[in-house]
Amino acid sequence: METSQGGFFERTQGHMHPVVIADYGKRRMDHLGASSGYLLKVMAAHAVMLAQCAIIPRPAAAALARTLARWAAEGGIAQERLDPALEDLYINMEHLLAEELGPEVSGHLPVARSRNDVEAAMWRIEAREKLAALADELLRHVAVLGARAAATADAVMPAYTYDQQAQPATLGFTLSAYSAALLRDAERVLDCVRRLDHCPLGAAAATGTGYPIDRALTARLLGFAGVLDHAGDCVSAADYMLEGTGAAVLALNTLARLAEDVIKWCLNETGFADLPDSLIDSSSIMPQKRNPVIVAAVRANARLMIGRYAGMLAACTVPYEASRDVTIVWEETTDCLSVAAGMCRISQAYLAEMTFHLEAMEQSLARGFTNTTEIADTLVREGGLPFRHAHQIVGGAVADLFAQGKGPEAMTYELLNQWSHTVCGAGLPIAPATLAAAAENRNSVTRRHSFGGTAPAEVRRMVKVQDERRRELGLTLESFRNRWSEADRALQDACAAL
């Protein structure tokens, strides 16, 4: 058996099996290297707290804080300095500190903490920043959709169910529906930030510490809203990763559904919209192709992240303790949050720059019996019929015309009158002019002025409300970032004071 000075900790560091280094350590180090700035921030706050609580010598704390602050100002620990044989990011930092300051100084830093609570703290900081970035993109997307919805509040188009024309609506109504969904996505993201923004540092390995630490101090220096209770929960929790990733996956799901509509609008058969050349792909063999590949990429990435999220949930079904299973899930969390923000930026771009063909949208309503619901409603409102009788009259006429291969232009007063005699034993209770007005698609849209309806005035009201909510959420996000920035300055001042 290989011998070395010290226990298993010293014996294993730098002596990982080559296959573990090649197939696990290196890949993990490449992924986690970008997080070194968060590690340095957490350790600097810990060093300041140890000095202020007189737990370690002040000169040692000053040297540690100064070095950690310098490395952070340089952008973190350079990737080429990280050794995958040293297991993880934290152990690499310890070795680099020992090289620069000597073990007599660097050896004071591990007091009253563990990798477990350090990783939990740095990951919560990184998660809140990535979630904040995602919230930013979602709110920008809402602004893009809101502007286009306001401009097209009067543009008539079909509303669909099961990819079949259902009723006349407006493009503004359709776009503002996605704004409503994305606003909820942003709210969920910010709710996640509120819940995870509490500091686990000081929990040590699992049960706390006997040193007279000040957990509230490190929480303030790291910009947390408070201290996370219960040392065991501090190092065992995975829900902040899963909730944050879940919020991102829900946002991706909204973007994927929007992408489905955009692809449908750009079909040759519909011709509702075109993407700019910079946001399509073409074919190497078919010269005419304008493939919405970029839009499909948003949809595909959403589906992939949904699948990975299922794997994350499964990986975290382990005993409630600090676990490498859970720490590996963190790598999936950062990927998903980054992908979600990126897909949101792409979705913003094509929604902002695509050209809508409003005339084609309105003309498409002539292909189906899309406005028959309004005809039935008119028989109820103006003629006093029970709705089921009105529905039966109109439905019978549609079925007749469908069987004959005819379209809505053949929906005559005479045909409906015949069906009225069949269903009710009497003729239509409305005049031909009233029926003609009901058959107008724009009248159908304007009449749906109930709260949340597709009437243009109601669409403009909803867009205004959504914009106000977007601004409120933006202020909430700004307040989070202000607290984090103030804490960064306080940590820099505290390090300088040492």
Describe it.
- This protein has 3 domains: 8-106; 115-364, Fumarase C, Chain A, domain 2, CATH 1.20.200.10; 368-442, Ribonucleotide Reductase Protein R1, domain 1 (Orthogonal Bundle).
- The longest helix is centred in the last third of the chain and has 42 residues, at 456-497.
- The chain has a two-stranded antiparallel ribbon.
- The chain contains 20 helices and 6 strands.
- The protein starts with 7 loop residues before the first helix and ends with a helix.
- Helix 9 links the parallel strand 3 (198-199) and strand 4.
- Helix 7 (115-151) packs antiparallel against helix 8, helix 11 packs antiparallel against helix 12 and helix 12 (293-315) runs antiparallel to helix 13.
- The chain is mainly α and 498 residues long.
- The mean pLDDT is 93.
- Helices cover 66% and strands 4% of the residues.
- The protein has helices at residues 8-12, 18-32, 36-52, 58-73, 89-101, 103-106, 115-151, 171-196, 215-221, 231-236, 239-265, 293-315, 324-353, 358-363, 372-381, 387-403, 413-424, 432-438, 441-447, 456-497, and strands at 156-161, 164-170, 198-199, 226-227, 273-274, 355-356.
What pattern of helices and strands is seen along the backbone? HHHHHHHEEHEHEHHEHHEHHHHHHH
Give me the oligomer status: single chain
**Mean pLDDT across every amino acid position:** 93
CATH architecture title of the largest domain:
Up-down Bundle
Major sheet summary line: 2 strands, antiparallel
Strand content: under 5%
Radius of gyration: 31 Å
CATH class of the largest domain: Mainly Alpha
Unreliable parts: none
Spatial ordering of strands, largest sheet: 1-2
- Distance between the ends: 44 Å
Total domain units: 3
Shape: elongated
Number of helices: 20
CATH fold-level topology of the largest domain: Fumarase C, Chain A, domain 2
Number of strands: 6
Structural class: mainly alpha
CATH-defined superfamily of the largest domain: Fumarase/aspartase (Central domain)
Please estimate the helix content: 55-70%
